[in-house]
Amino acid sequence: MDNVITVFKERQRHKRLEFERRILIEISLKELTDNITEMFSPFFSDAILYKGDVENVCMDIAIEAYLLGAEYSKFSCRGESLEVVHKRCFKLEKALIDALFDYWLFWKTTDGLEDSLHLTCDVFVSSWWKAGCEKGIMRRRLRLQ
Question: How far is residue 56's CA from residue 51's CA, in Å, rounded to a whole number?
């Protein structure tokens, strides 16, 4: 009789990766690129030399926010309101917003639009967090996780 010994951290990491794979199937790259173009079109100008790189970072941040929302949706299914769940991961979401804003400031010449850019980054990350949370709630209710 062979006993299989598994390490808890390894099993936990494997479960997390499987969850992320399943939840990422729901994202459309076309929807993601359209959202980036729609949200950040006033900030894309000839001054940005590496527009593709900025778009890639925006995609990465959006995917991270989506996964964060999907992960924290488990608290909503346990009875917490969406506002309480949102407050629960405020620091992580704020880190994503600040990272995106700092990256934009690195490539963009400042024209006095910093407040507007920061607000756009905030709305962009929050909308993808909310989309991930809603998708996670739906998957948990349907028991697809």
Answer: 9
How many Å apart are CA 134 and CA 126, to the nearest integer?
Answer: 12
- Whether the CB-CB separation of 117 and 93 falls below 8 Å is answered with no
Q: Could you tell me which of 99, 136, 124, 128 has the C-alpha nearest to residue 43?
A: 124
Backbone angles phi, psi at 45, to 5 degrees: -140, 180
Query: How many Cα atoms within 13 Å fall on the side-chain side of residue 85?
Result: 23
Cα 95 from chain centre: 11
Q: pLDDT tens digit string along 31-83?
A: 999 999 899 888 876 555 677 888 899 999 999 999 999 999 888 877 778 88
Burial class (CB in 10 A: 0-12, 13-18, 19+), 52: exposed
